[in-house]
Amino acid sequence: MTGVRELHIDRPERRNALDAATIARLRAELAAHAADPEARVIVLVGGGTQAFCAGQDIKELATLDRPGKLAVHRAGQELMDELEAHPCLVIAAIEGFCLGGGLELALACDVRVAGASSTFGLPEVSRDLLPTWGGHHRLGRVVGLGRAKELVLVGRRLDAATAVAWGLLAESVEDGGAHARALAIAEAAAAASSRATLARAKALVTAGQTADPRTARELDALAEALQA
């Protein structure tokens, strides 16, 4: 698959929870793909079918002192930022539960495809916690402020069909088919565009969410000049 790379979590015994070692490995692999001029699209996959990612590994967290907890949490935030800013298009292939930090991980990706039985939500506030890996700000950009408040403050969970209707998912497929569908989308995108065009288009879309109209137009003009 020319231009397509895969990123695997592969901790199904822990519902693909992110411990310090896994966060470090994922960040290293993302950096390697960023340095690879042939890489255009990345498909992010969780091991097994029970959950896409359970967020931060709570068992590991319980063994750490406060500085250790803050360090792992910061590394997780940096992983999300690196996914969002990565020059490659990043597609999340989701099966099963996509809750809490798992949803925050998916939100940092550009496109999300999920099995029909997948479930989505941010239950932290209902447990007297906070979604602080980017859920507060990324979710509103994807589904709108009112719906983001419903998910964060009320703890509503969405099925895959509703997630598609809300714009959280690009599409829902048969259970077990998210990986194959994500690869098909990735292959089509990699074949259609150069690495530079994909990277610039992604950066423009992301910047346009927060830039004022004049700045957005200037960014468009600069990007067009670079394409010439």
Would you kindly provide a written description of the structure presented here, covering whatever features stand out?
There is one protein chain. It contains ten helices and eight strands. Helix 1 (20-35) runs parallel beside helix 3 and helix 5 crosses helix 6 (145-154). Strand 1, helix 1 and strand 2 form a beta-alpha-beta unit. It has 228 residues and is of the alpha/beta class. It has two domains: 4-189, Alpha-Beta Complex (2-enoyl-CoA Hydratase, Chain A, domain 1), CATH 3.90.226; 194-227. 51% of the residues lie in helices and 14% in strands. A five-stranded parallel β-sheet has the order 1-2-3-5-8, with helices on both faces.
How do the strands and helices of this protein lay out in sequence?
Elements: E1 4-8, H1 20-35, E2 41-45, H2 58-62, H3 66-85, E3 89-94, E4 97-99, H4 101-107, E5 111-115, E6 119-121, H5 135-143, H6 145-154, E7 158-159, H7 160-165, E8 171-173, H8 178-192, H9 195-208, H10 213-227
